Amino acid sequence: MSKNMSKNKKTSVISVQDISVTIASSDMNDYICITDMAKAKDGDARAADIIKNWIRNRSTLEFLGTWEKMYNSNFKVVEFDHFKMQAGLPTFVLSAKQWIEKTNAIGLYVQAGRYGGTYAHKDIAFEFGSAISPVFKLYLLKEYQRLKDLEYDQQKLEWDAKRFLSKTNYLIHTDAVKKYILPQSDYVKQTEWLAYADEADLLNVALFGCTAKQWRQANEELAKKNNIRDFASINELTVLSNLETHNAELIKEGKSKEERFKILLEIAGYQISILDEADKMKVLNKQNGN
Predict the structure, then answer these.
(1) Looking at residues 205-225, what average pLDDT do you find?
(2) Pairwise CA distance, residues 35 & 41, whole Å
């Protein structure tokens, strides 16, 4: 087996002009079963002979040798030159297995058992396709690209799902931290802290129910690179912006911290409830097809 292929390779089967063609993938490398492809030329019976005749051709050997020189640092160039000198002679015969063993090639490999046959790197397999049937090669390229597009869509879907789950779990976690892990000091009822609070914490307590320091103490790891507002929802950030404007006006009016906190607390509760209810209605409308 090619050194480019791991034992944990993924196998896919595509249908090309009613012929099943196996593709083995591993580490971003795709190898296509040219034994399957050979059936497009002469059925099952002569697949091995078709591959042998193709490999012994001088132009094929030059293509294989050039590919190996480009991608295989362990390719035995001397052995390759020996084969190239014999190419074209009536007595010259070369199998895929002999080519691999003598030159240490990685562009081809032979597999026994299930999905058995001779496999070629996609670059080489497409070249083989040109030799046996240009029409078959075009359909092979089309089905191969369809497979790659399908795999990409599946990977993107899995990535989006993981991102969504990760975000959901994180929100659940931060909500639990807010409700259960934060110290149970009731800042709404115990207003002694107001004398020492800055304006930012006035808004934090009105909206989040805790000061920035309290949040940092309860979330030591998160607080190394983030602050409480980094985990606010869109609705909370919207309300926070409104609270900043309201607070500025209340300061101009000369209201005390205690007075301003009470007003801001009421505004925050009212606006959050309105926005959250609007979100619920959007979800219901989507579910009802509106």
Answers:
(1) 84
(2) 11
**In-domain check, residue 77:** yes
Residue 40 covered by a domain: yes
CA–CA distance, 155 with 160 (Å, rounded to integer)? 9
Helix axes 34-42, 122-132, angle to 10 degrees: 10
User: What pTM was estimated for this model as a whole?
Assistant: 0.53
Count of domains in the chain? 2
CA distances (Å), 32 to each of 21, 86, 118, 181, 290, in order?
7, 27, 8, 56, 49
Round the average pLDDT of the chain to a whole number and report it.
81
pLDDT, greater one: 20 or 41: 20
Predicted confidence (pLDDT) per residue in 95-129, tens digit: 999 999 999 999 999 988 777 899 999 999 999 99
Is residue 123 exposed (0-12), middle (13-18) or buried (19+ Cβ within 10 Å)? middle
